[in-house]
Amino acid sequence: MAELDTSSGGGKKGGKVRTKKANTKVDLTAMVDLAFLLITFFMLTTSLSKPQAMDVAKPDKDEENLDNRLELKASLTMTVLLGKNDKVAWYMGEAGDNAPTVESLRQIGSSIADNKKKVDAANVGTKQNFVVLVKPTEGATYQNFVDIMDELEIRKVKVRQIDDDNIMDLEKQFMKEQGIL
pLDDT of 97-115, one tens digit each? Predict the structure, then answer.
């Protein structure tokens, strides 16, 4: 049993006789029990946050699975090249057909939204989706990659792929000319 002793340790001072005060004892057992009950209650009723993961699709490297590859229509595809200094280059369609546009990472969200609207409007009634192909380069940071994936989630882009292995020479050359590779 837990107790709190508040006695003053009475004794004689200067020969005077004082009456002895009764020791006051406070029983803390109930307080300790209540504390443990509250801790237990909150531990059992609290839900732990579940980690949120995002599905990421990357091209298959096996040579035997080349027959099962999904061919993307150029008219539905937007390629985003992540560069250094929070810069991105993007283009619609195939590399070389359209000149890439260089923007900051903050501006790419509106470009994604505009291109998604154009593709969706051109393909009304079909089951074809807008596709964004993200290609991070050596100069890109992990934070840039997370930011672009978040932007794709915000803009509700259903089909997105990451390909950091197959960056074309045209794309590398353009990024070097712009100073973002």
Answer: 888 889 988 889 899 999 9
Q: What is the CA angle 133-135-71, rounded to 5?
A: 35
Backbone angles phi, psi at 151, to 5 degrees: -65, -40
Q: Tens digit of pLDDT for each residue in 18-67?
A: 777 777 888 889 999 999 999 999 988 888 777 777 766 666 666 666 56
Query: What domains does the chain contain, in order, with CATH numbers?
Result: 73-178 (3.30.420.270)
- Cα within 13 Å of Cα(19), Cβ side: 2
The structure's pTM equals 0.64
Separation of alpha carbons 130 and 134, rounded Å: 13
What percent of the residues of the chain are helix, what percent strand, and what percent coil, each to the nearest 5? Answer: 35, 20, 45
